[in-house]
UniProtKB/TrEMBL annotation:
Domain UvrD-like helicase C-terminal: 297-609
Binding sites annotated in the UniProt record for ATP: A31, G32, A33, G34, S35, G36, K37, T38
Catalytic reactions on record: ATP + H2O = ADP + phosphate + H(+); Couples ATP hydrolysis with the unwinding of duplex DNA by translocating in the 3'-5' direction
Domain of life: Bacteria
GO term, biological process aspect, one: recombinational repair
EC code(s) of this entry: 5.6.2.4
Protein family: Belongs to the helicase family. UvrD subfamily.
GO cellular component, one term: cytosol
Protein name per the record: DNA 3'-5' helicase
Organism of origin: Rhodoferax lacus
């Protein structure tokens, strides 16, 4: 009996133990939030290794984020002396990157291929459209990006896309041209990492056979959010399906997931992969975990009650032995600013009570909400960290610096070329660049190579830029990463540019932070310590040396020799390429202020799998959460509800949910009703904190730290924010507004309208009045338009006609 021998198992419940000690066969763990799925997955790896049932090289584990991968490796190395460094633990993208790096030749890629993140991809598409004079009204670049990524997620190359109409046919042509451009420039986007890995496995028998033989155990967390292509990739690696060879059984797949937490349908995730998996892999072992170890029952009951409103569920139970705990606190505030202020006050109190800041998380539905919260935290001098959103590596100045670095590595990277050819300004005009692009197109070469054919003044200026890069490449060859970056920052003129800028101090700091980031990257990856460290690195792992392992342990658990010799080359990646890869793949959030005790800010999407002592869910309002884009159809609404389920279940001890009557978002003031999700929570688990409504003129901001027109960009009051989808509310000119406590009247008539009345609007069509507020010029109505969602309209402006 393994349980008796292994302390690994002693802390698990019987179902968890059964899952950890399953035989080497396909299995599915389907269980609710906080039931220990991730813990089981990690412990299983440790258990398999400890009992000699697999070597570290025989494990492939897919996690949802880099953060999760790191956590898993840390936990593994705390459980047993294993070289986590050599193990394939990472995200789909991280693992595919590693795979393509090992087989770059067969994948038809340059060794130092660069990765385009979502932003880079969009600029590459924009550039392509410009070059081919594609009408961006008919084919908006963002839409093209969506189309291309969607095709790739479905595993479709241009030749496989079924185009039934002219519009789609044209899109497919653009997709084709985009692919050629990427290939020419030696860059791959996120979708390409996955698709190319898949195709390489599919089309190359020896490689497929090698990996099928190698990975004895394939473990996948958050399986409910895999897309079609990822599922196909797993199937291929596990030797299932059409390419299975009868004489060689593939590895055992353990899929772990929760259908109630499937929140990426909008990006192609297919919850149906779970059912397909059970059927196509002939899964014999399905394990349910029903004990929640994370949250007190008030929190868990709220989550359970909410999710029970969804129709399409596989059905699971979840209970906890912890007591009821504290009630879920609900707060209503008059404005998003007041909401943020309340939150910060509450956080200060929590911190005084001894809760670490990093155990306090603020979750929001969309990134745009973070600004107000950040301002409040900043004013209160409360350290915080924002995950997702504008990540460190996505900031403009960092992108510029990375573009220079990429050009050092690969002069043919046209996206980077275009980004910095005239940044800082060198007097190179759009016209000259167009000429250059035409030349490059005509001769089929890169912008860098086309320069020599360009004549005249324009030619000289651009040639000057190219020479600068070429010289810098020469001068930095052989330098260490830190020195390469420092040198580039000076010679490119970037530092000088931002130093001269009036508000450039932050950017200069960020550029300096890039040097520190590079340094800590080099240290973490252990460059120069061992050869394996370099080939195996991809921003994913720690070197064995830094784990303090004995040589014996490295030998015992080390990388299989085949790992190092099977790939295209035994050569190592340069630290620069490894760092650029890391910048593209890593969220970058472990860079700035790593290790500091800070409040955690993130979207609900990026909170998946994580847990915190205290959680604030903010902006729980109709139109925001559920999001207005998802409110009109049932599937959309159910996904929003799952998202709320994920949010609620992140909390261990204390949960706050707040909503605000007004909110500045995307430059408009919106009047929002509290979310319908509140009605789906059990009243007995909630505690409504009675808000103290502020004195008149509170929104104007004077004296509350949010002065109108301050750096936060909030100009105080409801200006004239009229724009599409929202009629402008007319308030006295000058911004500052008189706001009194307004009572929502449900049965009185306002400007001739009553609640529940049907009205017609020229743009939004027929709708039903939900709420009426205010009087005279300030009168406004909330109206639900089935085709356009729920909107607040100012009655003095909106042209509404009653429908009989
Ligand atoms: P999610 O669906 O949110 O990803 P999960 O099912 O992966 O959740 P884990 O994160 O693995 O759940 O576990 C939730 C918490 O419960 C963790 O803090 C974990 O350490 C703890 N836990 C899990 N199993 C046990 C157990 N048997 N005894 C004590 N604590 C446990
Ligand atoms: Mg988990």
């Amino acid at each position: 009996d393994h349980a008796a021998q292994s302390p690994l198992l002693s802390t698990l419940n019987p179902e968890q133990r059964a899952a950890v000690t399953l035989p080497a066969e396909h299995a599915l763990i389907l269980a609710g939030a906080g039931s220990g799925k991730t813990r089981v997955l990690t412990t299983r790896i440790a258990w398999l290794l400890q009992n000699g049932l697999v070597t570290p090289g025989g494990i492939l584990a897919v996690t949802f984020t880099n953060k999760a991968a790191k956590e898993m490796m840390t936990r593994l190395s705390s459980m047993l002396p294993v070289n986590v460094h050599g193990m394939w633990i990472g995200t789909f993208h991280g693992l595919c990157n590693r795979f393509l790096r090992s087989h770059f030749k067969m994948a038809n890629l340059p060794q130092s291929f660069q990765i385009l993140d979502t932003q880079d991809q969009l600029s590459a598409i924009k550039r392509l459209c410009k070059q081919h004079a594609i009408d961006d009204e008919r084919f908006p670049p963002k839409q093209l990006q969506w189309f291309i990524s969607g095709c790739k997620e479905d595993g479709q190359r241009p030749a496989n896309v079924e185009a039934r109409d002219d519009e789609t046919r044209r899109k497919v042509e653009i997709y084709q041209m985009y692919e050629e451009q990427c290939q020419r420039e030696g860059v791959v986007d996120f979708g390409e990492l996955m698709l190319r890995s898949y195709e390489l496995l599919r089309d190359n028998d020896p490689i497929r056979a090698h990996y099928q033989r190698r990975f004895r155990h394939i473990l996948i967390d958050e399986f409910q959010d895999t897309n079609r292509l990822q599922y196909a990739w797993i199937k291929m690696l596990a030797g299932q399906g059409a390419n299975a060879s009868p004489d060689m059984p593939g590895g055992a797949v353990l899929a772990v997931g929760d259908d109630d937490q499937s929140i990426y349908a909008f990006r192609g995730a297919r919850v149906g992969n779970m059912a397909d998996f059970v059927r196509e892999f002939h899964v014999q072992h399905q394990i349910k975990l029903e004990q929640n170890y994370r949250s007190y029952s008030n929190i868990l009951d709220s989550a359970n009650a909410l999710i029970s409103h969804n129709g399409n569920r596989l059905g699971k139970n979840l209970r906890t032995d912890q007591g009821p705990g504290e009630p879920v606190r609900v707060y209503e505030s008059p404005s998003d600013y007041a909401e943020a202020q309340w939150m910060v006050d509450e956080m200060k109190q929590l911190h005084r009570e001894g809760i670490d800041r990093k155990e306090i998380a603020v979750l929001y539905r969309s990134n745009a909400q973070s600004r107000v919260i950040e301002t409040a935290l900043f004013n209160a001098a409360m350290p915080y960290r924002v995950y997702g959103g504008l990540r460190f590596f996505e900031r403009a100045e960092i992108k510029h610096a990375l573009a220079y670095l990429r050009l050092l590595e690969n002069p043919n990277d046209d996206t980077s070329f275009m980004r910095v050819v005239n940044f800082p300004a060198r007097g190179i005009g759009a016209r000259s660049l167009e000429q250059l692009q035409d030349l490059a197109k005509a001769t089929g070469c890169s912008l860098h190579d086309a320069v020599s054919a360009l004549t005249g003044r324009a030619g000289a200026a651009i040639a000057g830029f190219v020479a600068k890069i070429d010289v810098l490449r020469e001068q930095t060859s052989g330098l260490n990463l830190r020195d390469i970056i420092s040198r580039m920052l000076e010679d490119s003129g970037l530092l000088a540019h931002y130093r001269a800028e009036r508000e450039g101090a932050d950017r200069v700091e960020n550029l300096e932070e890039l040097v520190s980031a590079a340094e800590s990257f080099v240290m973490q990856e252990g460059f120069g310590r061992d050869a394996a460290g370099m080939t195996q690195s991809a921003g994913l792992t720690q070197s064995p040396a830094s784990q303090g392992l004995s040589g014996e342990a490295i030998e015992q658990y080390g990388i299989e020799p085949t790992d190092l010799t099977f790939g295209d080359t035994g050569e190592t990646l340069s630290p620069l390429v490894a760092f650029l890869t890391h910048a593209a793949l890593e969220a970058g959030d472990n860079m700035a202020q790593a290790g500091q005790d800070a409040i955690q800010l993130m979207t609900v999407h990026s909170a998946k799998g994580l847990e915190f002592d205290c959680v604030f869910i903010t902006g729980v309002e109709e139109g925001l959460f559920p999001h207005e884009n998802s409110m009109s159809d049932r599937d959309g609404l159910e996904e929003e509800r799952r998202l709320m389920y994920v949010a609620i279940t992140r909390a261990r001890q204390r949960l706050y949910m707040s909503h605000s009557q007004t909110r500045m978002l995307h430059g408009q003031t919106r009047f929002n009703l509290k979310s319908r999700f509140f009605d789906e929570l059990p009243e007995e688990a909630l505690k409504w904190l009675t808000p103290k409504l502020p004195a008149p003129a509170a929104f104007g901001g004077a004296g509350r730290g949010w002065q109108g027109g301050n750096a936060s960009g909030y100009s105080g009051g409801y200006g004239n924010q009229g724009s599409s989808g929202f009629e402008s509310t007319r308030y006295p000119a000058g911004g500052t507004v008189r706001v009194e406590k307004e009572v929502v009247r449900r049965d009185e008539s306002v400007n001739g309208l009553v609640v529940k009345q049907k009205v017609f609007h020229a743009k939004f069509g027929e709708g039903t009045v939900l709420t009426l507020e205010g009087t005279g010029d300030d009168a406004r109505a909330q109206i639900n338009f089935p085709r356009h969602g729920t909107k607040w309209l100012a009655l003095s402006v909106a042209k509404l006609t009653p429908v009989p």
